[in-house]
Every structure is written in structure tokens, then in C-alpha cells.
Amino acid sequence: MKALLALEDGTLLRGGAFGARTTAFGEIVFNTNMTGYCEALTDPSYKGQILMMTYPLIGNYGVQPETFESKSIQPSAFVIRENCNHPNHIKSEKTLSQFLESHTIPGISDVDTRMLTIKIREHGTLKAAVTTERNVDSEKLLKEVASMPHPTETNLVATVSCKESITHHGNKKRKIVLIDCGTKQSIITGCQNIGNVIQVPYDTSSKEIEDLEPDGVLVSNGPGDPAHPEIMKTTVETVKRLSGGFPMMGICLGHQILSLALGGETYKLKFGHRGGNQPVKNLLSGRSFITSQNHGFAVKPELPEDIAVAEINLNDGTVESIRHRSLPILSVQYHPEAAPGPHDAHHLFARFEELMEGSHA
Length: 361
Prior knowledge:
Layout: E1 2-7, E2 12-19, E3 23-31, H1 37-41, E4 49-53, E5 57-58, E6 77-79, E7 82-83, H2 96-102, E8 106-109, H3 113-123, E9 126-131, H4 138-147, H5 156-160, E10 166-168, E11 175-180, H6 185-192, E12 196-201, H7 206-211, E13 216-219, H8 229-242, E14 248-251, H9 253-261, E15 266-282, E16 288-299, E17 307-313, E18 319-324, E19 329-332, H10 347-359
Parallel strand pairs: 3-4, 4-6, 5-7, 6-8, 11-12, 11-13, 13-14, 14-19
Antiparallel strand pairs: 1-2, 1-9, 2-8, 3-9, 10-12, 15-16, 15-17, 17-18, 18-19
């Protein structure tokens, strides 16, 4: 079976089809991880996007449900160089193709992912489509891609957030409210190590959260534009109202939402940061470390006087962390719950715990 990949700039590539027999649209982005394709495919931050892996061989250790970050595949399609149809791992339950097919997601292999990565780095992310269906009119597909609205025009957070509150019992009596903008399971697990977790929908009001009497509030990762009108009207407004009353922490999209709530601004990056090899420098200690990241937007460094930039990305100088100068509030653009090899960023959950303990001192 053959597949097509169409880009808004007119590029049309043919490759091998795997996964479901269907057509899907999205914003094509690349991830530089050598491993972790199961985690990436189930990360809600990829909603609305077509995920491409830069590492050439994908699927070689199969699919292991214990690694999933959510219950379903989140990207609309998957693009790789070489698909391994005969994985070898004791915990593997199915092949990559079977996994995609079970979630009605198309995949295309045998395409030049190096060329595509260079194209995205030079021109920025592109609207795209992947089809594995028979007898598709390629010119019509290209026109559909060119005319489609950009995925970030949709409130993607609403499609991945929980619909009602969920309680996750933790290892300590402390109570943490997790505002779910598309949270990963590993963030929930990280929070459970320092308290009980109440996971609430992204549009939960500040009054509803106050009534839960939390010791701290964490704003999760998620997909899309943090300054989308629906997010500004709901999550950003809620965080703004809560910011003076509770210790708070944001991760990825949550970092951007916190920054907006505190008076900052965000902008779209040319091609984003997606992978496990992003170097970050702490401006206070001078220490540098490697982080896992997955985002297409960033916080502008021009912030109100009471907000300090705490860390920057060593590749492009973008803001990686902020802290409030007087309130117990911090946020990070990277993922402290996702160890790319080093565990350098795991201390952030302990730091959040310290903020909560300090607020009761």
C-alpha cells in the first residue's frame, strides 16, 4: 500500500502506508528523540499536529501500554523514515502499525525525513495531510491543505482536557489541584509523589478551585495557542484570580498560561522545541542541564517587574522558566517529569513541594 504526504508549500511525497486507511490533516512538526515514540504518540500536546520523528528507525521495540501518557494516540498522523514490522521487546503487545490502526491514525514511511526536517527548520512548521487511501487526487489534496484553517485556530485544549474532576490518591496528605489542559500521565504521577491530586477541567472557575481548598495549584501541559480567546477567557482568567492565594506551578503550556495571567505575552516559534536534548541554563546558579521539551509557543522575555526570567534555552535564548519575586509561583517551559536520560529536572516537583510547605510556615 502507498501513502501520500502533502504540504502547504506544494511539496508532495510518496511513501509506504501503515496504520489505518484514512486521510488526516494537521501541522507537521518534528521530534528529535531516538526513543520514546509511544510516549510521544500518546502525548496530548500533539493534538492537531502530524508528528514526524527524525530518528530513522521507529517501531523496533513495539508498543508497550505502560509507557502511554494518555489513553489514545493524539497526533492526527505519523511520519517516519523506516517502519519496523518485527519488533523485539518482552513487553511489546503489538506493532506500531497495529497500534495506529487501532486508533484510526494513518502513517507514512520511506520518506526523506532529513529533507523534511531541514525544510521545517528553514521555513517553519507547515500545514499538511497524510493519506493512506486508494486513488486519492493529489492535486485536490494539496488544495485542501493550502485552504484548511490552521489547527491552532481551534481550542485544542477543550478536545483533550478531562470533562469532570478526577481524584488520584498520592503518597502524602497534601492536596494539589491539577488544571488539566492536556496533562500527561507522568505529570499526574509526579504530583502523586508529593500529594493527593484533584484533576479538573481546563475551564474550571477560580471559585470552584478555591472551594477545594488546595495546598497548591499546577497548570499542566497541553496543545495549541496559549493565547487562544477561549483559553484567555477561561484558564488564564482562573489562574490570574488564583495567583495571589495559592502556591502555583506551570509546565509547558501551563508555563505560558501562568505567564499570560501574570501580565506577560506569548508568541509562536518558527519550528518549536520537540525532543529530549534541549540545553537549559539557570541564570542564578549558572548551572546547565538537558531537558525534554515539546512546544511550539514561547514566552516573551519582556515581563512585568515582579516576574523574573529564571532559566533560558542555550540554543536560542528563549525563556525556559519564570519565578515571581514575592509570591510562591514558578513555571517551566520544559518537562520535569520526562527524563531524557539525565534526571536533572526532577527536582522541580520537590521545589513545588517546598513552595507549598513555605506557604503554611
